[in-house]
Amino acid sequence: MDSAPDRAHRAELAQQCVKCGLCLPHCPTYGLAQMESESPRGRIALMAALAESPSLSGPFPHLDSCLGCQRCEAACPADVQYRTLLQLTRSAVPPALGLQERFMLWLLAHKPVLNSGLRLYRIVYSLLPRAWQILPKPDANGSDYSPDRADVAIFSGCVADVYEAGLRQHLLRLLNACGIQACIPAQQVCCGQAAAHAGKAQQARHLAATNRIVFIGYRKVLLLASGCSQALKESLGDSAQDAGDFLLSHSDALKFRSAGGLRVALHQPCTASDNGKSSAYLALLKRIPDLHIRLLPDRGCCGAAGLQQFSHAEQAAKLRQPILDAVAAESTDVLLSQNIGCRWHLANGSTVSVQHPLEFMAQFLHDT
Ligand code: SF4
Ligand code: SF4
């Protein structure tokens, strides 16, 4: 229900925009289309119109194509709360979702079905036509082992529950090497970010409420995917922390073997906690001897943006290309990215191995 007070609140948020246009060069979709309607300023004008004239009816493809990357918000001198405005608007005027996206969102909210479906998907993967292989093949080692209880927990989320089981074991090894025990609570659910991005505010609130109950009493909840970071920090507060930041602050005891001259490139997701600088992972990687690290230059959002890599595949592929070009410009053995959605999308267009920085790091850990 789009109430008058809700519309007034959205109109007020939109009015903060002074239309200076300083955000435009930072917007990936404006960079591609060079059209005002594909810019933050154009979208804010549309969202203001939707708040003031509820009778306007969609579809609104220029609003739907927004990546939610928040690059505009970071560049805005008037402190326009673009993300809040976008989420409130999408909640009132939901984006046009295809059958596939609606099914994916339903799966994200029903984790037991999702996990069973992904395990089945792994078994039949090689029999499927290429067009149906929309997600990478999940690893075979899809089960978690952790202590029953500890005061530090690891967030496993939705799709990562199956896809990152191996990564969570690597994190546990790294934490153990620092003298820290962590556990992986079984009842946790999706962070809700994809639902919020798709205008499913009620679904996002329900998921956040479940996680708040599951994680009561934990000193820290460690996040491996930067895409979950903002939603989890909003629902769990200060206890939610990016795994890289936490590990760095406890890493005195970590010792690594030589990487033998390997060359890695570190991608900076828009959602990284330090505004895309991935500095904790960079600092940790620098502890590995004989490793050549290159921080990829910022070439804009990779286009993954939640489910948009599927719903706006053409736009997503165009946005990805400058990043892949930067990877190809220097010989790179492994591309590292801390966000699962970015890794899927980058791997889909590249022959270079794409890994989470902690997965890469753990193979050089000196356990003794
Ligand atoms: S969103 Fe901010 S930077 Fe962009 S046009 Fe409005 S005031 Fe200027
Ligand atoms: S969130 Fe990203 S894609 Fe959307 S308007 Fe802002 S900069 Fe552009």
Total of domains: 3
Mean pLDDT: 91
Radius of gyration: 21 Å
Choose one word for the global shape: globular
Q: Can you walk through the features of this model?
A:
The chain is globular and about 65 Å long. Helix 3 (40-52) packs across helix 6 and helix 14 packs across helix 15 (279-285). The longest helix has 17 residues, at 313-329. It has helices spanning 4-15, 28-33, 40-52, 61-64, 71-75, 82-92, 99-108, 111-124, 160-163, 165-177, 193-197, 201-214, 229-236, 243-249, 279-285, 308-311, 313-329, 340-348, 357-362, and strands spanning 152-154, 220-223, 240-242, 263-266, 292-295, 334-336, 353-355. The strands form two sheets. Strands 5-4-6-7 form a four-stranded parallel β-sheet. The chain has three domains: 4-92, Fumarate Reductase Iron-sulfur Protein, Chain B, domain 2 (Orthogonal Bundle), CATH 1.10.1060; 102-249, no CATH class; 253-362, Rossmann fold. By secondary structure, the chain is an alpha/beta fold. Helix content is 46%, strand content 7%. The mean pLDDT is 91. The chain contains 19 helices and seven strands. The chain starts with a helix and ends in a 6-residue tail after the last helix. Bound molecules: iron/sulfur cluster (SF4) (2 copies). Residues 17-23, 40-41, 44, 72, 76, 78, 80 line the site of one iron/sulfur cluster (SF4).
